[in-house]
Amino acid sequence: LWTDTSGGLRYRANIVRLLGGHQLAPDLLEDDDSQDDSGWSVPESPQATTAEPLSALAGALSDRDPTLRILACGALAHAGAQSVAHALRGRAGDPAAEVRRAALLALAVADPKGSADVLLTGLDDPSATVRVTAALALGTAKALVALPRLSTAVMGSDHALAAAAAEALGGMGPDALPLLRTAAAADLMVVRLAAIRGLRLQPDAVGDIVACLSDPEADVRATAAGSLTAPEGPGLSALVLLSATDPEAGVRRATIQ
Question: Model-level pTM greater than 0.85?
Answer without folding.
Answer: no
